[in-house]
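Wed. Picked up where I left off yesterday with Alpha/beta hydrolase. The coffee machine is broken again, so keeping this brief.
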Amino acid sequence: MVKGQSAGIDPDQYPQSGQGYSELRWTRPAGGAWATLILAHGAGAPMDSPFMERMSQLLAARGLAVVRFEFPYMVSRRANGGRRPPDRQPVLLDSWRQVHALVRLQVAGPLAIGGKSMGGRMASLLADELGADALVCLGYPFHPPGKPDKLRTEHLAQLATPTLIVQGERDPFGGRAEVAGYALSPSIQLHWLTTADHDFKPLRSSGLTQELQLQEAAQVTADWLSATLAPGS
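Structure written out below (tokens, as returned):
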């Protein structure tokens, strides 16, 4: 079973690029990719966490090229250990801009952006600015756990980029019942995973497993991107 927030970091595996992010990590399909998705990690786990690894594999199996990177604070954690907190938002956003520009030079086809939790939230703040073809958020942090009054949704009301948010029904960062009351742009489509939490782990009583939920998330993402990025859509 995948536990998306429990991965360790190998300090020798992914060197710093010399810019405001790590070296890129690509997961490519066996054949040619029909689109590329830049997928950023969440606040607590690196780009090679079990969650990020499995999602990248599942998406690549469906024809998507997935490229991952790490924000500067996670590069520092990998190099020096410890539990350095996430960088301030301007640093995170600048990292996203740099990575998007680099990947855009490397791929000619459709390019979507997104990420897990914080990584997806940062992508959502830049999607319109970058002219992204699509945005995918895996577990969007609508608010901090236990603080439903501290919403992170203001920009989502005006978001123009076609967006898919895959969310667990009992996500402590925003569950189904509360999100139903938020003002979200018509460009945003929500897909709910039955009884799942922030890492897409369902209740045992549901008869589902985290692996099944990850597969559903990957299939929904691939199907939605295929329809969204199709010529004339």
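Quick read: The longest helix spans residues 210-229.
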